[in-house]
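Quiz preparation item.
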């Protein structure tokens, strides 16, 4: 059946969202294959690594950019998918993901700044080696801090998304519960440095698998979704 306003079926929205989430898997590569491989706490070593692997560093930036752009597409698709449940709440959920994407894109500019600092010879003449290294580290930390701040909105988005899925009637309630748990995990991980910085909560990342469960359901079962005959209140 077709969504009466957009003329796009719920199954199509589900497929678009599922594919979009799959394409967002470029972010783990950027994180673990690029950022954590090149960046350390030692400024001189970090600058040396990035300078020696400029192509890899640029690839990481592009992967982040692709990921955050996919967030925008997924936000639209999930809004269309869950609009029949509650239009206002679905819109709010989409906006929260868009805010996260916008904050992340702004934070990403700091990595572009790092690339320019190390690829333009005039900067070392302007700053000097030590000051240039410090500026690089400040930009790298600004990226991490900005992106981490954005996860507050992403966590809230996931919890609301889970609620909408739970109430939908055309997506299993268990999937909704997994999304709420995933959102709660992101939220705890985001506020941890501020409320309990000395507590090790690395295990909390296991909750993130709720996103993968949702992705697989969208790809495998999403094409069978049928729009409900009447709005769900």
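Solution:
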């Amino acid at each position: 059946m077709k969504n009466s306003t957009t003329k796009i079926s719920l199954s199509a929205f589900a497929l678009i969202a599922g594919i979009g989430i799959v394409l967002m898997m470029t972010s783990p590569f950027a994180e673990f294959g690029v950022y954590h491989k090149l960046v350390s706490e030692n400024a001189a070593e970090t600058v040396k690594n990035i300078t020696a692997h400029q192509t890899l560093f640029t690839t990481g930036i592009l992967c982040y950019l692709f990921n955050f752009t996919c967030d925008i597409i997924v936000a639209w698709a999930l809004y269309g998918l869950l609009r029949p449940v509650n239009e206002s709440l679905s819109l709010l959920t989409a906006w929260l993901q868009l805010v996260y994407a916008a904050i992340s894109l702004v934070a990403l500019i700091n990595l572009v700044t790092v690339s320019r600092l190390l690829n333009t010879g005039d900067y070392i003449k302007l700053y000097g080696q030590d000051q240039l290294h410090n500026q690089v580290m400040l930009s790298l930390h600004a990226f991490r801090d900005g992106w981490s701040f954005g996860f507050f909105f992403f966590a809230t988005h996931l919890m609301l998304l889970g609620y909408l899925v739970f109430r939908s009637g055309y997506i299993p309630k268990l999937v909704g519960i997994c999304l709420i748990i995933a959102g709660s995990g992101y939220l705890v991980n985001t506020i941890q440095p501020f409320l309990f910085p000395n507590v090790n909560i690395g295990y909390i990342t296991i909750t993130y698998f709720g996103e993968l469960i949702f992705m697989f359901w969208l790809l495998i079962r999403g094409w069978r979704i049928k729009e409900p005959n009447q709005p769900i209140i």
